[in-house]
Records
---
Amino acid sequence: MENVIAGEILAAGNAAREKTLRTDYAALGEQLQRRAIDIDAILKKVEAFAVAIPSWGVGTGGTRFARFPGDGEPRDIFDKLEDCAVIQQLTRATPSVSLHIPWDRADPKRLKQAASRYGLGFDAMNSNTFSDAGDQKHSYKFGSLSHADAGTRRQAVEHNLECIEIGKTLGSRALTVWVGDGSNFPGQVNFARAFERYLDSVKAVYAALPSDWRLFTEHKMYEPAFYSTVVQDWGTNYIIAKELGEKAYCLVDLGHHAPNVNIEMIVSRLIQFGKLGGFHFNDSKYGDDDLDAGSIDPYRLFLVFNELVDAEQSGKRDFDPAHMLDQSHNVTDPIESLMLSAIEVQRAYAQALLVDRKALGAYQENNDALMATQTLKAAYRTDVEPILAMARLNAGGAVDPIATYRASGYRRKVATERPAVAAGGGGIV
Ligand code: PSV
Ligand code: MN
């Protein structure tokens, strides 16, 4: 496996930090032992935890007002894979990349070669029928899978089939479908007819799914349609997954809900009825802000993982939610944001593993609301950083990924190698 960051830089950074880390890890181990928790067992689980990087996340994002490109931005999917390799090399928590077609269209064999050179795999494929590609016949201005015109729907279905074909060569095992279909004016579309057309189209996509693949449909409350959206909420999404069959699951993008919605309860419901497919992790304050995971409300992220760990520990069958990041970086170096976001997701998982579930169950049975919530807080308040850093060190990553990345000068290097990517209008990301 090719190292993008020089081995000596990584080793030097770790050498400077390893002694302190071992002291901190031992101290946390003692603290957890008093709570009857074996730190090494938690470490093992954290080491096995992974979250996929969205290929589109390593480029600088933008808003509809402007995009301010950063230095050395990836020019194509091969540069993106190189950036993803840096994230994986230093965090060891992001072994796969999620591709978006047509943005990442390239010879699948070359893609596979490039990824395996870096030791990366491919996560879910993402189709794009929310914007027009240069060479397509029908426009998606008024929708795609739910479009009133049969030719446009057919084109959108075929695009999804092409994504599956590309994914097969790459070794992907899932397709994520998000459509921006909806309306901007009351009366513009007939809700029922649009949903019926969507269901017909997505059924045609589902029919082409290989037997070992999963189909993830992603709901979103609004944007780009601002009055109604065809797949707007988890209820609609659940209906879709039920209508399609056992390979269809709901994907929860944390940013796709109204502010203050109890997302962890949605997660619980979908788990209970066997339809939770996975996540797009990010954070938000007002809407689909695509901010870094855990940057605004880390407690909510913990509460989501509390549900996941609860399900995992209660032995739910066929429970294997996909973990992906989906965020947009407008003011930070995307590599740094993605490294920290992956670690934040991992942190929420580690904290959720510390919840005393036996005590919590007893408090719940006895209606002791105060102690029940304190039980969650006790886990959340625990500083699990030594566990996360130890997991990285054991796997050959960096104790401090940001410091090591900055010391490596990677961004300066690619800035000289990659000609600037144009500024300009924003994207939807
Ligand atoms: C839509 O906002 C979304 O969350 C979907 O996952 C898209 O595929 C992604 O963002 C990129 O635009
Ligand atoms: Mn998403």
---
Amino acid sequence: MASTAPIGVFDSGLGGISVAREIRRDMPNERVLYFGDSANAPYGTKSPEQVRELSDAIVKRFVEQGVKAVVIACNTATSAAANELRDRYDIPIIGMEPALKVACDRGHGNRQRVIVAATPLTLRERKFAVLMNRFKADHTIFPEPCPGLVEIVEHGQLDDHDVVMRTLHQYFDQYDLSTIDAVVLGCTHFVFYRDYFRELLPDTAEIIDGNEGTVRHLGVVLESLGKLAPEDTEGDIKLANSDTSVRIAQLAQSLLNR
Ligand code: DGL
């Protein structure tokens, strides 16, 4: 595969656009084919088998389109499908996981109190249990499934301040937020809520997402294979979606430009 080939990036819907945006910012020479599966979103309340099947169909199509690598811009699909996809396809497949390590490392040895906001499936899968086990002896971790936050993005309600804040309060009022050191945004849809979380949380609580780390990892992998796009090429992002309505196309574009 030539270094000028595109990178396939996919998510259950529009959340992964937050990752595509980061690729555009950090790797401006790369061409990105983004696929959002909004017709089948959310993935986070489906079974692992369903998510594996949907993810496989997307990656199969990317391979037919000649991508040089795939980014699973979805924590949920990574938990359910990444291993199987890596066994099946011989291009690099970059996954995501909640950035719990980043949150815990901030304590420099002091116990951290961390909320991990993610989908129900991500928090139920073995991958997250393994991640929790690495940190739970030394830190206090609160996994919080927030499926409603995925729906709000997919329904185009992200600018509805009342709806968003009401939903955040539903999930987070049970915590004494003044005692929380960090909230990990363990779902790519949630990255669009950064300003709302800032409004909800005291200044002492950090908001952490895995997008930057994922894009950095993508760069390292492509570089090690000699597959980074040449510096004289101009990158772009092509957005596609299984929901072919004008509404979704406009919403996707507005999230990319947000
Ligand atoms: N954006 C996805 C994630 O990062 C999943 C959202 C969903 O479809 O439930 O987990």
